Amino acid sequence: MMRVLFALLLALFAASAVQSREAAPLAADPVVEARMLKISEELRCLVCQNETLAASRAELADDLRVELRRLIKDGKSDEEIMEFMVNRYGDFVRYRPPVKPTTWVLWFGPFLLLLAGVVGLVRFLKRRNRKLAAGPLSDEDRRRAEALLGDGGTRT
User: Fold this and answer.
1) How far apart are CA 60 and CA 58, in angstroms?
2) Which candidate, 71, 119, 128, 148, has a CA 20 to 30 Å from the CA of 139?
3) Burial level of 140, CB count in 10 A (0-12/13-18/19+)?
């Protein structure tokens, strides 16, 4: 039993070692690093999609941060860098894309889906209530129900 437990612990430690990576190197210049961090907080990780580029630990995010550092060192302005990223990856790369016809789905799509769901639910409930309020059973329906219940519907 102890051998199995030891083997399991050893496997867990080996798996965690495989998952760990070295910390991403910081830029030699703290000004470059501060600008890169500010810009990367406005960009979406293309792998995680629900995290900013600054918060993501994906390898692609590391590559994009390296690219941002290179663009900053090349003297590009924040606007030029953002334009470069949008031209390369589309408006989706922005964590808060601008409201324009090509991004209406991103901005208004969730609300439209919610509205469609509420409308569908209301229609379903109204239809169900109409069927329930259709009135009492006819004699024929009552006989069929009693036949299905078996002993004349006098169960206790």
Assistant:
1) 5
2) 128
3) exposed
Q: Torsion-angle region of residue 150: left (phi > 0), alpha (psi -120 to 50) or beta?
A: left
- Rounded-to-integer distance, Cα 18 and Cα 95, Å: 31
* Per-residue model confidence as pLDDT tens for the chain (156 residues): 778 766 767 776 666 655 545 444 555 788 889 999 999 999 998 888 788 989 889 999 999 999 999 999 999 999 999 999 999 988 888 888 888 888 888 889 999 999 999 999 999 999 988 887 767 778 898 899 889 988 654 554
Measure CA of the first residue to CA of the last residue in the chain; give whole Å.
56
Within 8 A by CB and 6+ apart from 94, the residues are: 42, 43, 44, 82, 85, 86
Indicate whether this model's pTM tops 0.70.
Answer: no
DSSP string, 50-102: SSBTTT---HHHHHHHHHHHHHHHTT--HHHHHHHHHHHH-GGGBSS---SGG
Residue 44 DSSP SS3: strand
